[in-house]
């Protein structure tokens, strides 16, 4: 069997390469909105956001892509005390996800080259060295937990090396990072306390009140901040780095954990990875297509002009939820969309967004997830989940959602 063989042939070889997401317990999240009107006055369905605002729900792939790539759909005006949001509170205005043009382009252009595929490829050796240590620990456990021993520490340890954050600081800020990315609304004062701990920690790094490791991105950013016109302020550097401290850890971990969870219950896919590690990029891309990060896939936007979509017209000032999760399962673009089939051909998934707000850490996430899964398949070709999948506990929040343990055997 080679990677060029058609999907139909693979499905006929008796190993069941493809698997449906409906066969994986608890994989899909509960929805974070309330359906309101299946066909509103504009012709588009309406939903009610947790903030109480009505939003147009955009689900077709082409329509979602159009919204994501059109700069006339703004984010800035949603980040207000009374703004339309999935989050229980506002965020600092300088965060990249809250900025519109031209401010967004000025700040993101500053970091693009550092997060390019070529730049993050240099971290692959570090990923393998970290995996050496973690896999050795896993082998020595009486009741091995893949999540707690290997996966949980990988993204944060890679990221602190990349940024130049002392490893001994992890236990100080990381518990708060998890709370922030869950973004539960049960205890907003507690959520804010954790957010400001992380924010002030990153501020201290930028202002040199805490030490950084030489040669990391933080040092480079501080040295190069004047190359931007106007130069980046402390607040803007903190906003850039905060996105990395949170997203390149907790978000990567969430997708990596769910990818491993799926593969542990899909023997055909796991065997394909074991026997053909060169298939890993295709497997990872297909998993990225079907795995929502948390209970939402994008943040709301506000239309600054009238826009015609296939399903109807978006009027000026309308709140829009461009649902990338739904778009990634649009049957017109992805036939049998719930089938996890790594041999699909066609359009690219929208897991990392598109256009202005395309995730700056996409290449880093792909590299870490692919490297980790290939390495695990090589080390543990008979790896299996050692628990009833329905019994696993999950961290579940607005921004991230993942199992809290993965008991395994081999």
Automatic annotation (TrEMBL):
Parts of the chain that traverse the membrane: none
This protein's name: Cytochrome P450
Recorded family membership: Belongs to the cytochrome P450 family.
Coiled coil (residue ranges): none
Record has Cell membrane as a keyword: no
Domain of life: Bacteria
Keyword field contains Transmembrane: no
Organism per entry: Rhodococcus tibetensis
């Amino acid at each position: 069997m080679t990677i060029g063989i058609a999907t139909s042939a693979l499905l006929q070889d008796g190993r069941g390469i493809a698997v449906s997401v409906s066969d994986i317990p608890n994989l899909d999240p509960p929805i974070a909105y309330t359906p309101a009107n299946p066909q509103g006055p504009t012709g588009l369905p309406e939903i009610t956001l947790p903030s109480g605002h009505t939003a147009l729900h955009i689900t077709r792939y082409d329509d979602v892509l159009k919204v994501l790539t059109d700069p006339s759909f703004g984010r800035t005006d949603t980040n207000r005390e009374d703004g339309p949001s999935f989050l229980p509170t506002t965020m600092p205005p300088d965060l990249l996800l809250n900025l519109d043009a031209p401010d967004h382009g000025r700040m993101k252009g500053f970091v693009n080259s550092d997060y390019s595929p070529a730049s993050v490829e240099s971290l692959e050796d570090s990923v393998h060295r970290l995996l050496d240590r973690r896999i050795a620990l896993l082998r020595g456990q009486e009741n091995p937990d893949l999540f707690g021993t290997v996966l949980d520490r990988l993204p944060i340890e890679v990221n602190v090396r990349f940024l130049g954050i002392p490893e001994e600081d992890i236990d100080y800020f990381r518990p708060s990072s998890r709370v922030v990315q869950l973004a539960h609304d049960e205890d907003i004062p507690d959520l804010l306390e954790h957010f400001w701990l992380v924010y002030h920690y990153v501020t201290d790094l930028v202002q040199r009140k805490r030490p950084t490791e030489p040669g990391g991105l933080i040092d480079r950013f501080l040295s190069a901040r004047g190359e931007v016109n106007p130069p980046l302020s402390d607040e803007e550097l903190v906003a850039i780095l905060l996105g990395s401290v949170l997203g390149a850890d907790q978000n990567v971990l969430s997708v990596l954990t769910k990818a491993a969870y799926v593969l542990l219950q899909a023997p055909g896919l796991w065997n394909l990875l074991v026997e053909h590690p060169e298939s890993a990029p295709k497997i990872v891309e297909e998993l990225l297509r079907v795995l929502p990060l948390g209970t939402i896939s994008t943040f709301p936007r506000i239309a600054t002009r009238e826009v015609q979509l296939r399903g109807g017209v978006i009027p000026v000032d309308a709140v829009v939820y461009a649902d990338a999760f739904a778009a990634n399962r649009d049957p017109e673009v992805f036939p049998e969309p719930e089938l996890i089939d790594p041999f699909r051909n066609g359009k690219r998934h929208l897991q990392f967004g598109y256009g202005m707000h395309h995730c700056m850490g996409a290449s880093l996430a792909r590299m870490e997830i692919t490297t980790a899964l290939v390495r695990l398949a090589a080390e543990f070709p008979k790896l299996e989940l050692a628990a009833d999948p329905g019994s696993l506990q999950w961290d579940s929040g607005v921004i991230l959602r993942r199992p809290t343990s993965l008991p395994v055997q081999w």
